[in-house]
Amino acid sequence: MEAVIKTDKLTKRFGDFIATNNITFEVYAGEIFGFLGANGAGKTTAMRMLTGLSTPSSGSATVAGFDVYRETERIKKNIGYMSQKFSLYEDLTVMENIRFFGGIYGLSDKAIKEKSDMLVEQLGLASEKKKLVGALPLGWKQKLSFSVAVLHDPKIVFLDEPTGGVDPLTRRQFWDLIYAATSRGVTVFVTTHYMDEAEYCNRISIMVDGSIKALDTPYNLKREFGVGSMDEVFYKLAREARRSAD
Amino acid sequence: MRTIRFLLEKEFRQIFRNKTLVAMIMVVPVVQLLILPLAANYEVKNINISIVNHDNSDYARHLITRITASGYFRLTSLNTTFDEALAHIESDEADLILKIPRNFEKNLVRENKQKLFVAVNAINGVKANLGGAYLATIIRDFNQDLMLEWFQPSRTSQQPVIAVTPTNWYNPYLNYRLFMVPGILAILVTMIGGYLSALNIVKEKEVGTIEQINVTPIRKHHFIVGKLIPFWVLGMVVFTLGLLVGWLAYGITPEGNLGLLYGFLALYLLAVLGLGLLISTYTDTQQQAMFIAFFFMMIFILMSGLFTSIDSMPSWAKVISRLNPVSYFIDVMRMVVLKGSGLADIIPHMGAVFVFAIVFNTWAIVNYRKTS
Amino acid sequence: MRQFLTFIKKEFSHVLRDRKTLLILFGLPVVQIIIFGFALSNEVKNAKIVVVDYAKDDVSRQIMNKIEASRYFELEKRSLAHHEVEAGFKEGQIKLAVVFPANFGADLLHFNRAQLQVIADASDPNLANTLTNYLSTIVMDYQLALNENQAVPLQIGTEVRMLYNPQLKGAHNFVPGVMALVLMLVCVMMTSISIVREKELGTMEILLVSPFKPVLVILSKAVPYLILSLVNVASILLLSVFVLDLPVKGSVLLLFAESTLFIITSLSLGLLISVRAQTQQTAMLISMMGMLLPTLLFSGFMFPIENMPKVLQYISNAVPAKWYYIIVKSIMIKGLSLSAIWKETLILFGITMFFLMVSLKNFKIRLA
């Protein structure tokens, strides 16, 4: 299988604090790769290094074949990103946000038009498309955020706790969007707290105190730890954590 | 280039969506320009004087009449002791004290020489200097007339006299507003541009939207240019409004070429906005950006020559004022608007501002990091 | 009370954690006082001047030398042609031109009368006025020296004493002014921004649903800023005395008491703004754009208030910085006691009460 993300002993230090410690893994094209861990385990830091927002302290990694040290701008052409903190413009309307990010990614006017019409249709936002994004409920904001992140058909999309704080129904709908994206060949790299969501992933890794403690399919992990659910796998690993959650 | 178009679209939408902001940008400068030049007035008149008169003579009375009739002085009090008059100075009711000694007239005639005593509240140097000078002039004139009265005209005319005839160019009526309006307009345009640009990027940092921008393949200089142009346009609009106020309210029309003024402004705004964006890239919160912008703005305004002359600063302060873009703008405004200076006259200013623009913007682009 | 202390502690840690802001808060007044204390003065000196000499005789040369020797003027060029004067003015360097007509010395010798033309760049009227005055004095002195051998009858001399500030240093005037300006703006910005920030972030609601009186929430925000500002007052005063050689003639204690009052005035104005403004940006623009120039102008340390139109004189009464400026000047430089400034103190107090009442009223309405 073709690996679109490869890391080798990737490390990030902030002074004495080692946020991610020698992590090594591969993500294959077309899969949904779950990145699990307690708060403060180093998930977001790892993701920021892979998206080119933060320079690693040591180790190496490539994303879509490009180096995370030297080719961050080329990586950015090939990825989409949805941050933990909602980061579309609240003082722009739905359509204006889509148009802006489409433009930044270099889509043609025609493509922007088609995509945005399709998008609002798909999300059921047709009647809200002239509303300011700040006025939308959180669930819709998250779905819109995701759609904007995959607007330019990236090879890989990074999602940082995309479903935090939304209701179960919306979470279900959100995962439908993720599946739709993978069916178009997009690789999904997602961090989450929800263990039921972990079950939706093809493979998952679990981080504890900055290191990857387990990496396999949900089925294999459950078997390896001899438990019936991902919840229990997670508890077994997270109990060993020495860092307190933030 | 396409990217910049989308950035501009977004920035303009955001600015115009914030109605309070737009109102403030447009209304505050206009209101301040209408009011402040009336307050900024150095024409020294109404100097308050307390007179301690110990001599009940005609000469003393004539002198007092001279002073009060001059139009520069307002008699606060006639006191019998110096201490009483000093109390008026302490309470700021009087700026000057004139003391006429006992037997002033008698001794003047007998000894041909007398001294008057003047005490000036010198905390405010301008008033002290000018007030003292005016009083000295009045006393001198009074003295001359006395001499003429006592002696034959033929005797005095034997003394050589040099008559100084002053001419005031560009502002013959010495109207202080002519001087202040262009300067205050320059400050207002600078404040609008400086504050808005300083706050802009840092706001995106605080809200978190900058992350979404940073994961896109956007070029850094496109981003900075996209941030620069909207405020550049706003600066031009505010300036135009200000010129209109200057014309309608104060009847000031530029003596020089309007195109030249706008040409300079175009360059100047790039420098100011570049500085604002630079501050923005160095700070994490709007609060920080605001305080730093405030710090620079205070120094820029007070060291710009708007209120106090740069010529009379110590040499190290002159160096600071040379590093102050605002001083160039104020200078150019006054030169072009009041004196009709041409391109050749302001070439040095343009050069300086051009260098500022290049340095600040390059620095801002370099310091804006998409990757931390 | 315990709760209140907890809140104050929280506010303090907010303030102390943000190192950049802290550095600015303490650094800003210090740097500004030093710069302005040394750099600003209304004294006119080293003004550039050109001489157009058509006479080229001894008298014109002697007067020129006198001009050159004066510290007010810097002789830029001699004997240019008349039309070059305008070019000099337009270039902006030259402030004054003196024209000696042809036969200047001869006229003085034969007719006892000569004309000297002085052209000022009056775009700055004050400067033009002052320079013309200085030049006339120089010429007058020259003339007196010529007459020295003849006894002049009925001479009235004047002896001038400069009170409080014999060297006419700018600092005496500008330090109290800049002090008022900086304290005012820093306090207003700090309070308004920090409260609006909590509004924007939504943490204000959390504080308001706590079983804690809203008034105390506000009060606990003000305490750290009050202390910070008093530290600033202290550092400004130390600098003024030890670096700028300014006197503190009156009571230091009184000065601090008045400063505390003024800081509270400013903090309550910040509160008033924060009750009104919805976003940090608006709060900042109001406190910066809206306040910087008006405070500067209406406090009276730049321009005499009695020169302003009546309406503006009334407006200036509402500017707290004006009263504080008068108070600081009176205590520091004139060495007066409370009996001389009780009126100003009372006015400041009244303004403070007004700000507090209006903002608390608005605050309650918003809660209801």
From TrEMBL, chain A:
SUPFAM superfamilies: P-loop containing nucleoside triphosphate hydrolases. One of its GO terms (molecular function) is ATP hydrolysis activity. Transmembrane segments: none annotated. It comes from the Bacteria. Pfam families: ABC_tran. SMART domains: AAA. Keywords: ATP-binding, Nucleotide-binding. InterPro entries: AAA+_ATPase, ABC_transporter-like_ATP-bd, P-loop_NTPase. Residues 5-234 form the ABC transporter domain. PANTHER family: ABC TRANSPORTER G FAMILY MEMBER 20 ISOFORM X1, ATP-BINDING CASSETTE, SUB-FAMILY H, MEMBER 1. This is ABC transporter ATP-binding protein. It comes from Chryseosolibacter histidini.
Automatic annotation (TrEMBL), chain B:
InterPro entries: ABC-2_transporter_component (IPR051449), ABC2_TM (IPR013525), ABC2_TM_bact-type (IPR047817). The keyword Nucleotide-binding does not apply. It comes from Chryseosolibacter histidini. The lineage of its organism: Bacteria, Pseudomonadati, Bacteroidota, Cytophagia, Cytophagales. GO terms for cellular component: plasma membrane. Signal peptide: none annotated. Its main location: membrane. Keywords: Cell membrane, Membrane, Transmembrane, Transmembrane helix, Transport. This is ABC-2 transporter permease. One of its GO terms (molecular function) is ABC-type transporter activity.
Automatic annotation (TrEMBL), chain C:
GO terms for cellular component: plasma membrane. Keywords: Cell membrane, Membrane, Transmembrane, Transmembrane helix, Transport. Its main location: membrane. It is a multi-pass membrane protein. The keyword Transmembrane helix applies. GO terms for molecular function: ABC-type transporter activity. InterPro entries: ABC-2_transporter_component, ABC2_TM, ABC2_TM_bact-type. The chain crosses the membrane at residues 21-40, 174-196, 222-244, 250-273, 285-305, 340-360. It comes from the Bacteria. Residues 128-366 form the ABC transmembrane type-2 domain. This is ABC transporter permease. It comes from Chryseosolibacter histidini. The lineage of its organism: Bacteria, Pseudomonadati, Bacteroidota, Cytophagia, Cytophagales.
